[in-house]
UniProtKB/TrEMBL annotation, chain B:
It comes from the Bacteria. Residues 55-65 have a biased composition (Polar residues). This is Uncharacterized protein. Residues 69-78 have a biased composition (Basic and acidic residues). It comes from Nocardiopsis suaedae. Residues 1-84 are annotated as: Disordered.
Length: 323, 84
């Protein structure tokens, strides 16, 4: 940071755990922080800015105090909530209000001459495409599992039948299904070729080699342009070895060293996508680290809490870095 | 403003990740239902650790909306579930 008046803007929910950890880290470094949740706008926050010679100038008044745009030198973008128009508007009015908020306040924030961690909203949005993630990882020298994306049932069956250790299905983005009246989640699930139905034709489906049999542990890495920290996640139950989210109660966590080629590949990945940080998921076998995904804004706080690995320090240092 | 489905994800701000915030509303399945939707299963409870939620912990929110009933527009709300 270049001056005592400069601040880091934490764009996050008021009780976001990751933002709190980063806030605490920045506090110990005597860096001023400001918190803003986009859900506060337009009802609980007031915007008044004018275009000046070097950008937008003015103040956002929030429930936690005023935010002067010129004071913001860095932004931690940690999944703030959608804008919330006033209650009582019609759907058309609310849709208008939301779109104008998004392109108005969103545009003002996006224009800030600030360092964004893990990246500016557009970059982060781009980086959510799983096929893009896998392709960039491969180009950056990271090992990736055999993967197919298709809406061709025959191609999907052929792919599944061709995997020596079987295949799994993973949703590309849409995790939650609630049209039965109960929320359900799509986990990484094993699939035999003969189970694959014609409904695959209805949209894109992602199939991947089943890695559960050869998996030693999962690893979740927080990588920035200046360093990385990693935690191994060990599951015992067979289905949790395929998807650790199925057995949170019985997972073991431990810090783990990241091989230099993997760390270097992750850094190349971030640069390729214009990111400054990312949360990577790997499957570790006895021979390799296989890239699974990278969520720029994904969670890591519970891993720091479980292991003491100082991931928030990495984020804080990235926010404080000189351009 | 572009309505291109490929551009929409790029410029969203910050409307959240698609499919991570969905209404809980029973709807009949159709013959063209995407195969992957039926791979969904119930979520085991994720034990809390301090204040930091697990990536698949969820919460439910009530959302105001309108619906049409016999040509009359009425106010209502619905529940949606949200995950990270």
């Amino acid at each position: 940071m270049t001056g005592p008046s400069k601040s880091v803007l934490l764009l996050a929910e008021p009780d976001d755990g990751e933002a709190d950890l980063v806030d605490r880290c920045l506090g110990t470094r005597r860096v001023n922080t400001l918190r803003f949740d986009t859900a506060w706008f337009p009802v609980r926050a007031r915007l008044a800015v004018e275009l000046g010679p070097s950008g937008w100038e003015g103040t956002i008044h929030t429930p936690e105090g005023p935010i002067d745009l010129v004071d913001i030198e860095a932004v931690y973008y940690r999944q703030p909530r959608p804008f919330e128009p006033a209650r009582g508007l019609s759907e058309a009015e609310a849709r208008f209000a939301s779109a104008e908020a998004r392109f108005g306040l969103g545009g003002v924030l996006a224009s800030l001459d600030a360092r964004w961690v893990p990246g500016a909203p557009g970059r982060v949005a781009d980086a959510e495409y799983k096929p893009l993630q896998l392709a960039i990882a491969a180009r950056c020298g990271l090992s990736v599992p055999p993967t197919m994306v298709t809406n061709d049932p025959a191609a999907a069956r052929e792919f599944a039948a061709g995997q020596r250790d079987g295949a799994v299905y993973k949703a590309l983005m849409h995790k939650l299904i609630a049209d039965s009246g109960e929320p359900r989640l799509i986990y990484t699930s094993p699939v035999a070729a003969e189970e694959i139905g014609g409904g695959v034709a209805a949209t894109a489906h992602q199939f991947q080699a089943d890695l559960a049999g050869k998996k030693a542990v999962d690893a979740r890495l927080l990588v920035t342009l200046r360093g990385c920290a990693a935690v191994a996640i060990r599951a015992e139950r067979p289905e949790a070895r395929r998807d650790f989210r199925l057995d949170y109660a019985a997972l073991d966590y431990a810090p783990i060293e990241v091989p230099a080629p993997v760390a270097e590949g992750c850094t190349r990945y971030l640069s390729a996508l214009g990111l400054t940080a990312g949360v990577f998921g790997f499957c570790l076998t006895d021979r390799d680290w296989l890239f699974l995904e990278c969520g720029p804004g994904a969670q890591w706080g519970w891993l720091q809490e479980a292991t003491g690995v100082a991931m928030s320090d990495l984020v804080a240092e990235e926010l404080m870095a000189s351009p | 403003m572009s309505d291109s489905p490929l551009a929409l994800a790029r410029d969203r701000f910050p409307t959240g990740l698609p499919g991570h915030r969905v209404p809980i509303r029973p709807q009949p399945c159709t013959p063209g239902r995407p195969w992957g939707m039926d791979r969904a299963r119930e979520m085991p409870a994720a034990p809390a650790t301090g204040k930091h939620g697990k990536p698949t912990s969820t919460r439910q929110e009530t959302v105001p909306t309108e619906y049409t009933d016999d040509s009359r527009t009425r106010r209502d709300d619905y529940t949606q579930t949200v995950t990270d």
